[in-house]
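Quick one before lunch.
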Amino acid sequence: MTDVVKHALMANAIRVLSMDAVQAANSGHPGLPMGCADIAALLFSKHLKFDTSEPCWPDRDRFVLSAGHGSMLLYSVLHLLGYEDMTIDELKRFRQLGSRTAGHPEYGHAKGIETTTGPLGQGLASAVGMAMAERLMNARFGDDLVDHHTYVLASDGDLMEGISQEAIALAGHLKLNRLVVIHDDNGITIDGAIGLSDSTDQVKRFEASDWRAMRIDGHDADAIDAALAEAKASDRQTLIAARTTIGWGAPKKAGTAASHGSPLGLEEIAGARKAYLWEHEPFILPEELAAAWRELGRRSRHASDGWKERLEAVDPGTREEFERRISGEIGPGLGEAIVKLKRGYAEKPVNVATRKASELALDAINATAPEMIGGSADLTPSNNTKTKGLEDVAPGKFGGRFIHYGIREHGMAAAMNGIALHGGLIPYSGTFLIFSDYCRPAIRLSALMGQRVIYVMTHDSIGLGEDGPTHQPVEHLAALRAIPNLNVFRPADAVETAECWELALQDRTRPSIIALTRQNLIQARKAYTEENLCGRGAYEIAPAEGDAEVSLFASGSEVEIAMAARVLLDARGIVARVVSVPSFEKFAEQDVSYREATLGAAPIRIGIEAAIRQGWDAIIGSDGIFVGMRGFGASGPYEELYRHFGITAEAVLEQATARLGQAAPISDSVRDMRRRG
Ligand SMILES: Cc1ncc(C[n+]2csc(CCOP(=O)(O)OP(=O)(O)O)c2C)c(N)n1
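Model of the thiamine diphosphate complex:
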């Protein structure tokens, strides 16, 4: 069999499996797999470094199918290569509930899927993070242990999304020369020809961001092979714009949007089979071809064996550290650092903004956890994410630990997903909480994939003051709390900030947002507690002296207001307690008895948060009083804003007394207490 025939057969196997699986599911996207089969066959058979028997081998090349709608391309290839969990039955169950072959690739569903994709642009931007992580790890552990490439297959839609610009520019700037993007340049999107909405010259666009870029015929095996070889050897990040025909081989639908996102239909499938000279029934592969593909699955086994030998040969300390980092285990230094901070704050309270407290916590954490990779989207002095001694990551220089992501929040969040997925590093980075909106699609994917990505989001309310309503988050806490599997922490002081950092780092299967203030706060937790109380999500920070009539619940900067309100209420003979609520999610996870005890029996519950009410009813009940925001903020000094919007201790007192006036008679014990003064 000539190489040409062998290549055609291998590529056609991908095409047939893909079109048949889509047809069987009666849903899916056959066009991309049929158009990109030549590229995939060449990439996996000759260039990509992987080992099907060691799918998590740390030094494997990463392949990201950014155009996740073409998922059958990936599933077909994984099956053909012999990944154990990608059986032919999984292909037959494409898009069915509980199968590994979800509509779009999902991280963790099957080996060989490096990230969840589907929202266009995310895969490409995450791949930039993977390529960054590779260089960062290489700078720490050297070529013997870390020396691999990241390949991305991106569609027109991937490149049209705004996030792609952030990703391309960042990769070009940092000189991520182990990154290869293959553009499926088929000129077709859902609505029809790409000319309906775009006329960008992608090659010029990439070149403008310092990429090497080339055009090839995406169906010419020699051209693909040569381009991949060149890209791999290049000292520049490389774009291969591969001109392809969507739905290649389908008699009527090839080259048209009709092959993009629906089953081809039996007639077209029969025509395509004829074009491929393919005589086998659906899901049946000729044994010789199947064996040839499986053999390729073992192609780089010698490379993974060689890598294992090299790992054995490094000094034990380095090996242990490499393995620890890859495992994601945090060293014991973290717990010790947090205890030390908390003891220090108990001895000598600090009244600082929680963004400053976060910096203090990070100072201690970064000193003990070298796997922490910090950053900011051009708000470094505001986010306080760059701690003492952290060197910058610079173009071509990856020894540092701090990434200036530029004004690219979305790209930053997606890159952090890629860094976390790559393994060996823990990414954290900052922006203003208001710009969580600019990160949201990537935050959602961090949560969906269960990745430990830590978002440091400062300037968390009207408390940021003069910058005004464009910068003042109001609905953001509620919106973020609505994302499943995401920790939203809003610490009230330096002690809680240290605790929330500890929780974020301990939670290996969840991303965390840490919402932090710009303004200084009085330290609310004075006494040292060994237990990480924020781990409870909500806890009584100031008990009632007697039977409470009012329970005050607050988060972050408003805990200070709750504490002051308690004093005012007390002066009026009204017994109140304060519960700090740094995390709704952690509180919801507590057992019923703890939750009930913490919610307490006081007839009046008041929630205080400089944000909208949504979500608070779970704590204060629908008849609870909420002291917070009802609309957008305003520009002015923050103390005035708090007064203007009625988020003050006096407002709490007023509301409580008004409600008490209507409430049932005060209990005997309370009356007694009042009499006693
Ligand atoms: C962020 C986002 N917007 C919209 C979609 C829905 N969608 C899926 S594929 C696609 C575009 C298809 O064009 P292209 O990317 O060129 O893929 P091809 O048709 O070549 O397979 C769109 C709009 C999506 N998956 N993600």
